[in-house]
Design brief:
- Helix content is 33%, strand content 25%.
- Among the domains are: 152 residues, FAD/NAD(P)-binding domain; 132 residues, D-Amino Acid Oxidase, Chain A, domain 2, CATH 3.30.9.
- It has 406 residues and is α+β, with helices and mostly antiparallel strands.
């Protein structure tokens, strides 16, 4: 069988497309992106709130902090080049309880280490920025922005194709075999042969890694994030993005209020364990995922430690009134009648066997492959930096095996 591509990238989300684009531009081509869906950006890249994160939440020196910082300027150039909507609207991180003030101070110190502008506000200052918000103190982060990530994915695909690469949708991976000489990727419609494989499969990244003979040391647990849209009356009470102070024990940011690039205000998301990798609704059940969930020692350990918080997320999922109560901590007066269901998203979160959630991006090398096995939020913001990091890893892997971009 002849070689179909020098590099096959599995996954047509923003990370896969950004990675394929930079590989093609660096001379690793021909690069082929395959995705099982009929179009690109059907999952995490197309089911998010569109936030371009400043990086304030991420530990200095972490991959999240470094790659968000590396990505923001080139991302802004990309959207400008393609005429994609982008608005630097700013974010307010709001402490509503005395117990949150120390965590707010830690975020302020982190902003200094990261070189970010973040302004500490007391109650009067909060009202200057958000007249209807209430809190004891807040951080105002002007750099936070919103954009259209599906449009960015289309732009990345167009640049990839212009550079000589290819995108094939409706191409589901069924098996992978990797030898010293090549990788064979079996699809429903046939097989592909490539010299190198890059796994950016998001919700299925651990499964793809195992098919390629790599033990990622983690499993992907899908968490559904449910959103509501605010009524027009309630939306007029929100000017920026309004977030609570996050709980340091979790990589989730809590229910918040987000201006959308197409207009309106989204509320959410919560974080509910899904019973399918693509479980966008309660009724979505995947037998294989149910078996994995019930047999997962890591998930059992996580649940044992954090059952109370998990239960609260489920209650908010079932009760619109409880969801509104969480929002009204930030902006008093938001009621259940102000909330209209919006499409949900599913976060691909890696968990270790000891029950800890992987709180940073995670990449692993295989025989002739590189696997991005944990890239949840802020991966969309950091996508161009992640792509560069993957390209560097693949280049190093090629050098170790005596190969080079062609």
């Amino acid at each position: 069988m002849s070689t179909d591509a020098n590099v096959v990238v599995v996954g047509g989300g923003i990370v896969g497309l950004a990675t394929a684009r930079i590989l093609q531009q660096r001379g690793f081509g021909p690069v082929l992106v395959i995705d099982k869906e009929p179009e690109i950006a059907r999952h995490q890249s197309g089911h998010n709130s569109g936030v371009v994160h400043s990086g304030i939440y991420y530990r200095p020196g972490s991959a999240k902090a470094e790659l968000v910082r590396a990505s923001r300027a080139p991302l802004e150039r990309l959207v400008a080049d393609h005429g994609i909507a982008f608005e630097r609207c700013g974010k307010l991180i709001l402490a509503t309880h005395p117990g949150e003030l120390a965590a707010l101070d830690r975020l302020a110190s982190r902003a200094v280490h990261l070189g970010l502008d973040a302004y500490r506000l007391h109650r009067a200052g909060i009202h200057d920025v958000e007249p209807f918000a209430e809190g004891l103190a807040a951080l105002h982060v002007p750099a936070t922005a919103i954009t259209d990530y599906p449009a960015i994915c289309r732009a990345l695909a167009a640049e990839l194709i212009d550079a000589g690469g290819e995108v094939r949708c409706s191409s589901a991976v069924e098996n992978i075999s990797v030898s010293d000489g090549h990788a064979r990727i079996e699809l429903r419609e046939g097989a592909l042969r490539a010299n190198w494989l890059v796994n950016c499969a998001g919700l299925h990244s651990d499964r793809i890694a195992r098919l390629a003979g790599v033990d990622p040391g983690v499993e992907i647990v899908p968490f559904r994030g449910e959103y509501f849209t605010l009524s027009s009356d309630a939306a007029r009470r929100v000017r920026h993005l309004i977030y609570p102070v996050p709980d340091d024990r979790f990589p989730f940011l809590g229910v918040h209020l987000t201006r959308m690039i197409g207009g309106g205000i989204h509320a959410g998301p919560n974080a509910v364990l899904a019973l399918a990798r693509e479980g966008y609704r309660w009724g979505a059940i995947e037998r294989r995922q149910v078996r994995a969930t019930t047999s997962s020692a890591g998930l059992r350990r996580l649940a044992a430690r954090h059952w109370r918080m998990g239960g609260a997320e489920v209650v908010r999922s079932i009760s619109r009134r409880r969801f509104a109560t969480a929002l009204s901590r930030l902006v008093p007066g938001i009621e259940a009648a102000d909330l209209e269901r919006a499409p949900a998203g599913v976060r691909a979160q890696a968990i270790r066997p000891d029950g800890t959630l992987v709180d940073d991006f995670l990449m692993i090398d295989g025989l002739r492959s590189v696997h991005v096995v944990n890239a949840p939020s802020p991966a969309a913001t950091a996508s161009l930096g992640i792509a560069d990091a993957v390209a560097d890893r693949l280049s190093a892997l090629m050098a170790r095996r005596g190969a080079a971009p062609r």
